[in-house]
Amino acid sequence: MPTKIFAHRGASKYAPENTMAAFSLAYQQGADGIETDVHLTKDHTPVLMHDERINRTTNGTGYIKNYMFDQLQQLDAGSWFSSEFTGLRVVSLDEFLEWIHDKPLYLNIELKNNKIDYNNLESIVYDRVSHYRLLHRTTLSTFNPIGIERIKHLDRNISTALLTSKRVKNLASAANDLGANAVHIKYRLLNRLLIDQCHHEDMAVRVYTVNRPRRMLHCFAMGCDAIFTDIPETAIHFRNQYNNQ
């Protein structure tokens, strides 16, 4: 099966990450799926942002957890990237799920619970995904092994992925013991043995963040199940080139 192309925070090379502009562009470019990140506000609204703080990608400062959702909605989440995107808002998980539910896209939601262990993040996100009837094409990923266990207590059938940027001894076995269905690894960790071990356990291997064509082609040749990229259109071009060899 061809390697899937997931747009990393949307088509984030061309539009501000984790905004509707980036998600819409990824869809237009033909991505197979979209990867995004979820935090909780002070009033327990799941919102899409990578960092724990809002400083880098809005005109505000401080931690997401200290803001009410209505307060975040007053911020500019686009002008940091380009004046063309001035006025874009912070996106709620509900807004995103409403948009994606009728589109043929896979969904990877990274639960940002490794630095701040938000109360009930797993159950809140699970309930929203379930509400939009998207469980069958959603993977919940996290760097936090306890997060995987919590998700599996909610629903042992939902797809989960253990994220890592570090070398972990017997990663495939460790992830499998947690109940994960996949491992999401930094590109430098990719090797044939890991691919074989994961596939032997019926676990997918997805690689981040792959923007260089040479690395894309290497992932395709290794049989990776998916890559996460900021430039989905380019990845699709090189996947087609590889498959037509």
Structure, briefly:
The protein has 245 residues and is of the alpha/beta class. The chain contains 9 helices and 10 strands. It is globular and about 50 Å long.
Tags for this entry?
TIM Barrel, 245 residues, 8-stranded parallel β-barrel, alpha/beta, 20% strand
What is the structural class?
alpha/beta
Strand content: 15-25%
Strand order of the largest sheet: 1-2-5-6-7-8-9-10
Biggest beta-sheet profile:
8 strands, parallel, barrel
Number of helices: 9
How does the SSE layout of this entry go?
Blueprint: E1 4-8, H1 20-29, E2 33-40, E3 46-48, H2 69-72, E4 91-92, H3 93-100, E5 106-111, H4 121-131, E6 138-142, H5 145-154, E7 159-164, H6 171-178, E8 182-186, H7 192-200, E9 204-208, H8 213-222, E10 226-229, H9 232-243
Parallel strand pairs: 1-2, 1-10, 2-5, 5-6, 6-7, 7-8, 8-9, 9-10
Antiparallel strand pairs: 2-3, 3-4
Explain what the structure shows.
This protein has 245 residues and is of the alpha/beta class. It has a single domain, classed as Alpha-Beta Barrel (TIM Barrel). The protein is built from 9 helices and 10 strands. An 8-stranded parallel beta barrel has the order 1-2-5-6-7-8-9-10, surrounded by 6 helices. The longest helix is centred in the last third of the chain and has 12 residues. It is globular, with a radius of gyration of 17 Å. The model has no long low-confidence stretch (mean pLDDT 97).
